[in-house]
Amino acid sequence: MSMFQQGAIPYLIVLGVIIAITLLFRLRAALIRQEMNPVIQIGNGQTIGRREEQDDYFSTATSSHGTIAVLADGISGLANGRLASTLAVTTFIREFTKLDNPKHMSLFFSRAASLANSEILQALRGSRGGTTLVAGVIVEDKLYWGAVGDSIITVFRNGEFIPINQKDIYESVLEARFLSGEITKDEALEHPQKKQLINYLGYENFQNIEIGREPFPLEKGDKVILCSDGVYDTLTEMELEQILFQNIAAHDAADQIIEAVESKQKANQDNATILILEKGW
């Protein structure tokens, strides 16, 4: 061994130690990040039902800030439902990837909704179209959310559902009129337009998206559920509870829910989509 090689040995040892320490720090940082943002189990299921076209669209994404799930139900009664739902979801996912601070979550929801509404209207060029949308973001042990239309986001905890958003349908207006004494209870319950949407994306008079004032605190075992009306109009809460209460993976639960929807064999079965997010603890 030459003198040059002998002299290089201490430097190689030091270099090796530095590399080892660097790797250990990176591993420790990765473990800390994993503890702060554990892996989110994501399950999804969808059926076209008896419709000619699948107007539901959904997507999920994970960044350093958290995990987002977005579901949009294109309005079947209007043309271009698929176009509207696809644009809405892709806009939300795109804007989420740009988010630089989870503290700006409320601004993210309002900005994404405004952009989605504008992009849908521009794409429609005067044609009719629109979509509902629900979006949930899990950051550590908190759920941030936004919703417009009649798709729902709910949390399944200890065998029961905790509703998160309000549905933007005429039924809410009728309920307010009943409480103020303007109409009777029967008039409110039997109104033929009670399920009609009063706010959605792709609407020139779009008002705003409902946003949680404070993030919803999640607990161990919680399942965050996003679904279109094709699910909750077909299955009862009890039927959903029986599936979700099982100790099975999120994707298996989603598959079982869609199978249960299809087994009803409803003549007018709407598109049905469900997303399940379950945080690892």
From TrEMBL:
SMART domains for the chain: PP2C_SIG (SM00331), PP2Cc (SM00332)
Residues of the PPM-type phosphatase domain: 41-279
Entry keyword set: Membrane, Transmembrane, Transmembrane helix
Superkingdom of origin organism: Bacteria
Pfam families: PP2C_2
Signal peptide: none
PROSITE patterns for the chain: PPM_2
Coiled coil regions, renumbered to chain: none
TM ranges: 6-27
The protein's name in its UniProt record: Serine/threonine phosphatase stp
Native source organism of the sequence: Brevibacillus formosus
